[in-house]
Design brief:
This protein is α+β, with helices and mostly antiparallel strands. The chain is built from five helices and 16 strands. The strands form two sheets. Strands 2-3-4-1-5-8-7-6 form an eight-stranded mixed beta sheet. This is VOC family protein. It holds the Pfam family Glyoxalase. It comes from Roseibium aestuarii.
Length: 259
């Protein structure tokens, strides 16, 4: 799990409404764990005990700082403290942690050197075998990760140094520059680009798989979300759409290319 995305979280203003929205759009089921004085909602692909993502209320300090509802991803590491030291030595800033999650592991929240938020996760010991996971491309799983960086090439160099990421296909987008896809000893799982001027700050975007993107964007609109762009076909044959949930968090959808 070193150097790959292992978890996703939504910080939102209304977890109950957000759970209802995403369940209708992506088909997730939910379960709730009470921890540290608040409810943590687990989001599951139907039929799988292991969650795909989690959801929690936006902390007061985020609200006071003007941080909107948002999704964030966790990259797995084997030595959290050592990775935090490496990242901060290269210009990252620590937002929170490292801290323990009882009976689960340890985590830290950081901004990369250009300001994009990202979390790290070091798992704790497992009592038994890992639960089964849905196959890649299953509706409700995360099918793509996308970094809108202040400087795309410099961002790739940073993540490659930290996590041994490797270049895959590069797509020339003309005036928008190069869209560099990324792999780590396997299929491409992310893309890195220099952000467009209308993107206010560097950020990571997350694409959730759907079986039929036309039907999925209809579900977004019908249930109070907003479709910001798409559906659009992208190189490789996948179709994507960029959306916003009713509480204001940005998310994206991807219908994987059919064979």
């Amino acid at each position: 799990m070193q150097g790959i995305f292992v978890w996703y979280e939504l910080y939102t203003t209304d977890p109950a409404l957000a759970a209802e929205f995403y369940s209708k759009v992506l088909g997730w089921t939910t379960s709730v764990n009470s921890m540290a004085g608040f409810d943590y909602t687990m989001l599951h692909v139907p039929g799988f005990e292991m969650g795909t993502a989690g959801m929690l209320p936006r902390p007061q300090e985020m609200e006071q700082a003007g941080v909107p509802p948002h999704w964030i991803g966790y990259i797995g590491v084997m030595d959290l403290d050592a990775m935090v030291r490496r990242m901060t030595a290269k210009g990252s800033a620590v937002h929170f942690g490292p801290a323990d999650i009882p009976n689960i592991g340890r985590f830290a929240s950081l901004a990369d050197p250009q300001g994009a938020a990202i979390c790290l996760f070091e798992p704790g010991p497992m009592d038994g075998p890992m639960p089964d996971e849905p196959a890649p491309g299953t509706q409700g799983t995360v099918g793509w990760h996308e970094l809108h960086a202040g400087d795309g090439p410099a961002a790739f160099d940073f993540y490659a140094e930290m996590f041994d990421w490797q270049k895959d296909m590069a797509v020339d987008m003309g005036e928008l520059g190069i869209y560099q896809t990324v792999r780590r000893d396997g299929p491409a799982f992310a893309g890195i680009m220099t952000k467009m001027p209308q993107v206010p700050v560097p950020l990571w975007a997350y694409y959730f798989c759907v079986d039929d993107i036309e039907a999925a964007v209809d579900r977004v609109s019908t249930n109070g979300g907003t479709v910001l762009h798409g559906p659009q076909e992208v190189p490789g044959g996948s179709r994507i759409a960029n959306c916003q949930d009713p509480q204001g968090a940005m998310f994206s959808l991807v219908e994987p290319a059919r064979a």
